[in-house]
Amino acid sequence: MKSLNSLDLYDVRGLLSEDEQMVQDSVARFVDDKVLPIIGECFEQARFPKDLIPEIASLGLLGSSIQGYGCAGLSGVAYGLICQELERGDSGLRSFVSVQSSLVMYPIYSYGSAEQKQRWLPAMAKGEAIGCFGLTEPHGGSDPSNMKTVAKKKGGDWVLNGAKMWITNGSIADVAVVWAKTEDGIRGFLVEKGMQGFDAPEVHHKMSLRASVTSALYFDNVRVPEANVLPKVKGLKGPLSCLTQARYGISWGVIGAAQACLKEVLGYTQTRELFGRPLNHNQAVQLRLAEMARQITLAQLLSLQLGRLKDKGEMQPGQVSLAKWNNVRMALNIARDARDLLGGAGITTEFCPIRHALNLESVITYEGTETVHQLVIGKEITGVDAF
Questions:
Q1: What is the pTM for the complete model shown?
Q2: Does domain 237-382 have CATH number 1.20.140.10?
C-alpha cells in the first residue's frame, strides 16, 4: 500500500484542482528557495524582507482573488493555499500579503470608485504601491464600535483626527484604508503617505512578527479630499467584511506554520538519540507527533470546506470565526509542543518552532481574539449576543 504523507494524512492535495495544485507548487518553490534561507536572520534582525515584494507580485499573489486590474483572479481555495505556503515560511510574510490583498485591495475593489480602483489596484497588484488597514485603536481593539478616530466635513474635504495601533505595513505604506466615525456613520478614507498631519511611526521591541512591519498611525487635522472617501459603504459592515476576508486567509495560513513545525520535529526526533535510541522510537514522542498530525488534518479539512463554500458564495462570517479560532489554536499548540520536543535546541532560530510560536501569539490575537471568535460561535448556536 502507498504510504501516507506525514503532513497530509487525508490527501487533501488530491481534492484540489490542477490549477490549485499549480498555485500551491509555485508558492512552495518560492518559499523554499527565497524565504526559508533568510527568514530566521530577518526575524533575529527585526527586518521585513522588502526585496521579496517584486517576486511576490510577479507570482500574482497580491490581490489574487480580484478580477481585472492586473490581478490573477484566482479562486478562494487558491488564495488559501497561497496563505498556507507563505506562512509555512513566516507569519510576517503571510501578514504582508493578507493585508495588501484582503484589507486594502479588497475594500477598494468592493467599495471604491472607478477612479480609486484604477489608481490603486494595478499598482498594488504589481507591488509598486503598498497599503495598510487602519481599524484597531490604542484603547481597545476588540470593540471597533467604540472608535475614537473621527472625520468631520470641512468645505469639500474631510478633516481626520485620531490614532490607530498595531498596523501591519504602516510605515512602508503608500496608502492607508482608515476607518473613522462621521456624523453619517463609520466611513472609509484613503489616507495617502505625505498628507500633512499624517504620521506612521514603526513599533519596535516586538518579540513576535519580527520579520514584519508594525506601526502606529496618527492623524492630526489630516485633510482628506472627498475623492479619497470609499463611496459604496457606511457603518461597521465595511471594516468587518474586510476582516472576514483576512480571517479566511489566516485559517489557511497557520496550517503552513504547523506543518513546518511538524516537519522539523519529525526529522529531529528521527536522528536525535537519547538513552541509546532515536527519540521517535519512544511511545510518548510518537503520541505527541500523532496528535500534531491529527490536528493538522482536521484543520486542513475545515479550511478546504470553508474555501469551497467561499467559492460558491455561501461562506458565512461565523464559519470563518470557527476556522480562525480552531486553526490558530491548533498551530500555536503544535509550535509550542514542537519547541519542547527539540529541547534546548528549540530556543534558537536554527529551528523554526520558536519563531512560529512567537508569531502565532500575535496571530491568535489579531483580527479577532480567540475569545471574540468563541463568542461569535456562541451567538450563532444560541441566538444570544453575549458581547
A1: 0.96
A2: yes
